[in-house]
Amino acid sequence: MAEVQDSFLLVIDVQQRLLAAMPDGVQAPLIKQLGVLLQAADSLTIPVAITEQYPKGLGPTEAELLQLSPSKTAIEKTCFSCADADEFMTTLRTSRRRSVILTGMETHICVLQTALALQGQGYQVFVVEDGVCSRTPQNQHNALQRMRQAGVIITNTESVLFEWLADAKHPEFRALSKLIF
Q1: Pick the catalytic residue: 13, 82, 130, 133?
Q2: Is-catalytic flag, 110?
């Protein structure tokens, strides 16, 4: 279960040019789900990191997401696995969080490699199924199956949100539940 005191949210490579290459009808729902998670993480004081894969070629992170996390500077990388990006790993280790919630693009490349590498380092890894995408549904499906078979927890935005809240008596319950209803 994703517990608020041990969670770390990672938004992988949701960049303008890469987002534009995603199938029609995928972009807006993805941004909506990531927005819910970013707002919840902010309200619940969950650390967040945002990465950018070769921003000179793929552009910056989608502006709407940066507005929801204005204090975050994107971590630039060229490696596909965020676990190979020193700046990200320093940020994660410093947080002392052991559950990493993965979102972003592309499911079958950077998300997959990051999930498997972090799991191999002893982190509990959650991949938010409605918070990731690939250019083809087949690649996304294959990656989710591979991660599930490897023991990565495949979840969804609402499950993560309500696991973080844990109880309807949580002081942030009313505000955060409005994000999905």
Answers
A1: 13
A2: yes
Look at residue 124 and give its three-state secondary structure. strand
- The number of C-alpha atoms within 13 Å of 128 and in the hemisphere containing its C-beta is 33
Band (72; pLDDT cuts 50, 70, 90): confident
Q: What is the DSSP letter of 42?
A: H
In this prediction the pTM is: 0.97
The residues near 38 (Cβ < 8 Å, ≥ 6 apart) are 9, 11, 48, 65, 68, 69
Alpha carbon of 27 to those of 49, 119, 141: distances in Å? 20, 28, 17
pLDDT at 70 over 90: no
Q: How confident is the model at residue 43 (pLDDT cuts 50, 70, 90)?
A: very high
Domains of the chain from N-terminus onward: 4-177 (3.40.50.850)
Catalytic residue among 82, 110, 130, 133: 110
The structure tokens 């303008």 sit at 16
